[in-house]
Design a protein that fits this description.
This protein is an alpha/beta fold. It has a single domain, classed as Spore Coat Polysaccharide Biosynthesis Protein SpsA, Chain A (Alpha-Beta Complex). It contains nine helices and twelve strands. The strands form two sheets. Strands 1, 2, 3, 4, 6, 8, 9, 11 and 12 form a nine-stranded mixed sheet that branches. A three-stranded mixed sheet has the order 5-10-7. α1 crosses α2. The protein is globular, with a radius of gyration of 24 Å. The termini are far apart. The structure holds 2-acetamido-2-deoxy-beta-D-glucopyranose (3 copies). One 2-acetamido-2-deoxy-beta-D-glucopyranose binds next to loops.
């Protein structure tokens, strides 16, 4: 009797064919997956990096990360006079906030805040002199589902903190890849054309703070508000992480020449800003881990594709600092719409030339 079936796996040629087919299949699947759902692909990549310990997990050190004594920190009967500067620690700032991620319609939200927030997303405390006049810059493209959820959460928190604010949504038009950093540069300049601000906070639309003692004002050093994130199991990232929610005074941002304009696609621009900030001799001040906790909005999350060239760009952060940033920024006139709860600065971005090194 003869064997009809063949065992391909014993024959080198057959095995190679099967292997090649499998590799091709997996590769095309991965490519298809990361192309169609870059957000999820990013999350997996991040998860894998952590599992493989490519990203080392650090322990934060230093005085700025010491937890304050939460029991005795806030005087219960704190009173402020209307001719005095608002303190940073109001009694109502009682710590952990509940996070509501349910969908809400913008019109409904407008009603909820009508008479409280002024057109364009402006508010100022009346019972004391606000310490900071903050411009919130929210980089935006197709996140209409997320924006009202963030505003519903953020506005009451800022009111409790007695922060004078204007909320700006910086919308990217056109077909270029998302450029968060360049949008923020545009937002900074356009906001200052309209209003005086002494502090800017760059706030991702899908980040919801979980603790209202995370004070949204600036400090004498660039500030990192976002320390721990729910999707990363609230584990600490690398110590130089400087993304998600960060703040610089108007002066500090000008000094570092803003963000680089070269980061098209997701990632890298925050590390680049960190390099700039460091170069100019600033030390980033950070919220404590208890206060710096954030929830992220996952539903309807269409994340932008990754910028794979970012690692290469990051090797030249220091060299580019003086020739790539606010001083080299060029853009078509922005369209400005005043909505009830925010000012929409919309702009079509195109790559710009770096200035010549002098
Ligand atoms: C505020 O006004 C009170 C009296 O109304 C006065 O005693 C106090 O010195 C004033 N404070 C400041 C900072 O001007
Ligand atoms: C930043 O931190 C370093 C190391 O702790 C310190 O030597 C330096 O003086 C700090 N810089 C500023 C501007 O505070
Ligand atoms: C901002 O304005 C642009 C241009 O009109 C528009 O496409 C975009 O949807 C607006 N964004 C928001 C959040 O209103």
């Amino acid at each position: 009797m003869q064997m009809v079936g063949r065992n391909y796996f014993l024959k080198p040629k057959g095995a190679v064919t099967v292997l090649l087919l499998t590799v091709t299949y997996i590769t095309s699947y991965v490519l298809y997956f990361s192309y169609t759902t870059p957000g999820q692909a990013n999350s997996y990549l991040y998860w894998l990096e952590r599992k493989l310990k490519v990203r080392p997990s650090y322990v934060y050190q230093g005085a700025s990360m010491q937890e304050e004594n939460e029991e005795t920190y806030f005087p219960a009967n704190l009173r402020v006079l209307s001719n005095e500067t608002c303190p940073e620690k109001f009694y109502e700032m009682n710590g952990k906030m509940s996070v509501n991620v349910d969908e809400i319609n913008l019109d409904k939200l407008n009603l909820q805040f009508s008479g409280k927030v002024k057109y364009g997303g402006n508010w100022s405390p009346e019972d004391c002199i606000p310490k900071w006049n903050v411009g919130f810059l929210i980089p935006f493209r197709n996140r209409h589902y997320h924006l009202p959820i963030l505003l519903r959460h953020l506005i009451p928190m800022l009111m409790i903190q007695h922060i004078k604010f204007t909320i700006y949504v910086i919308n990217q038009e056109g077909n270029q890849r998302f450029n968060r950093a360049m949008l923020l540069n545009v937002g900074y300049l356009e906001a200052l054309k309209m209003k005086h601000h002494d502090c800017f906070i760059f706030h991702d639309v899908d980040h919801l703070p979980e603790n209202n003692r995370n004070y949204y004002g600036c400090t004498d050093m660039p500030r990192q508000f976002r320390v721990l994130l729910d999707v990363n199991d609230y584990s600490l990232e690398y110590p130089t992480f400087f993304g998600g929610v960060t703040g610089l005074t108007t002066e500090q941002f000008k000094k570092v020449n803003g963000f680089s304009n070269e980061f098209w696609g997701w990632g890298g621009e925050d590390d680049d800003l960190y390099a700039r900030v460091n170069k100019l001799g600033y030390n980033v001040s950070s919220a404590t881990p208890t206060r710096g906790r954030y929830s992220t909005l996952q539903k309807n999350h269409h994340q932008e594709s990754q910028n794979l060239g970012r690692f290469n760009l990051l090797t030249s952060s220091i060299e580019r600092n003086s020739i790539d940033g606010l001083n080299s920024l060029r853009y078509q006139p922005a369209t400005i719409e005043t909505h009830k709860l925010f000012t929409n600065i919309s702009v079509d971005l195109q790559p710009v030339r770096m200035l010549k090194k002098t």
